[in-house]
Amino acid sequence: MENLGYVIWEKIPESCMNELGSADLAGYRESTMQTIDDLKARRVRRIRLGVSWAEWSSPGGKACIQWYLKRYAQDGFDILPCLCFTPADLSMNGKCTGPPKDTVMYAMFVYDVAQYCKMSGIRIEFIEHWNEWAMGTDYDQSCDPEHSILARMLTGGCVMARRLGLKNLLGGMAGVDKTNLALMSNLVSKGAAGYFDSIGFHSLRGTWSDQDFPGSLFDQARSVAHTVRNTRVWLTELSFPTTGLHAPGSIAEHRLEEIQVAIYADALAHVLNGFPERIYWFALRDRRGPTLRSIHTGWQDPLQFHFGDSHEDGSPKLLGRLLIEGGQEAVAEYAKKNLDVPALLREASLRRLPPRDFERESAKPPI
Fold first, then answer.
1. CA nearest 59: which of 24, 32, 103?
2. Is residue 285 over pLDDT 50?
3. For residue 364, what pLDDT is reported?
4. What are residue 52's phi and psi, to 5 degrees?
5. What DSSP line would sit under 7-57, residue for residue?
């Protein structure tokens, strides 16, 4: 059951993106320490931690990232660093979503992160390469319609990671549909996917990213596994939003929280049965302000701020209360005694939203 972890996307404050002073970092450190305490209260050992290449390359950003990598490691967390977002000055489109002009630079970024972890005593086993590479919000496919540049970039990064004794995880796709499976097949044909030890995918149930695909969520994972042979499958983002903001019809908040618990309990059962091998829950708490992704791309959807097992102020929802009271065992027991899990999973699927026009919406100004 230790193979169900949490996604932590650190938002570096603007005040920390220059030369750091103690006053600039004080609030940031306090927020990170609160996150650590909250994770420990839930008995969480594994975290998936965003490491932005764009922030790493900015004044002050590298120091912040290095600090929180070391801080989480000191508190005993097993860290999966997810590398993504090109520095604008190295990007083909001048934005953080563009492919790098020189793909070798990405391999050097992998080297820098891995060497820092090694020299600082931070033990990592895997490097995750590029979150949601199949979406325009995180990778501008208009610059690379055949994904040839992406394939070279990922191959170089994987080769570098292997030379340093690390394993490679392909960043998760946002939902599994025929289009994304075709993109995966394209990477396979270019040889890039052969360098990955595990592949990830996402399922943010009841949202635009949970696309229509035959079979259950975990049948989708098997379809991905069959596309790329001899690899393990991880579900690197799983959640359900506890708001009806965009969904048709109305539903009580407690019902949405029960659906969230049912999805978590179902994930626990599958991890215990060994497939997928590992799952990361998204997220610890709701957010009001911009996430790391929206800072870099300008795209935001209010729905994405309600995936937490707790509210923005830290007060736990049903899932958070159960985890704090008794860990994953308490979630499984509550679901078994009080919930019709299959019915709630069906309800989550029925609440799926239509696909979003990410390319157009990414041009909108932040909320």
1. 24
2. yes
3. 45
4. -80, 125
5. EE-----GGGSSS--HHHHHHHHHHHHHHHHHHHHTT--EEEEEEEHHHHT
Please tell me the predicted confidence (pLDDT) of residue 361: 47
CA dist 197 and 60 (Å) reads: 33
CB 366 within 8 A of CB 300: yes
Pick the closest to residue 182 from 229, 129, 130, 223 (CA basis).
223
Residue of 366, 365, 362 whose CA lies nearest to 141: 362
Helix (H, G, I), strand (E, B) or coil at 204: strand
Q: Longest C-alpha distance within the chain, in Å?
A: 56
Stretch (H or E) spanning 343:
helix 341-350
- Multiple choice CATH, 4-361, 3.40.50.300, 3.20.20.80, 1.20.1250.20, 3.10.20.30: 3.20.20.80
Instruction: Give the pLDDT of residue 137.
Output: 80
Helix (H), strand (E) at residue 281: strand 278-281
Cα 294 to Cα 139: distance, rounded to the nearest angstrom: 13
Query: For 158-179, what is each residue's pLDDT tens digit?
Result: 999 999 999 999 998 876 777 7
All structural domains of the chain with their residue ranges: 4-361
Q: What is the separation of C-alpha 350 from the centre of its chain, rounded to a whole number of angstroms?
A: 24
CB 283 within 8 A of CB 238: no
Cα(73)–Cα(363) distance, integer angstroms: 37
Q: What pLDDT score does 233 carry?
A: 86
The rounded distance, in Å, linking the Cα atoms of 359 and 134 is: 12
Cβ atoms of residues 190 and 151 within 8 Å: yes
pLDDT at 222: 74
pLDDT at position 287:
81
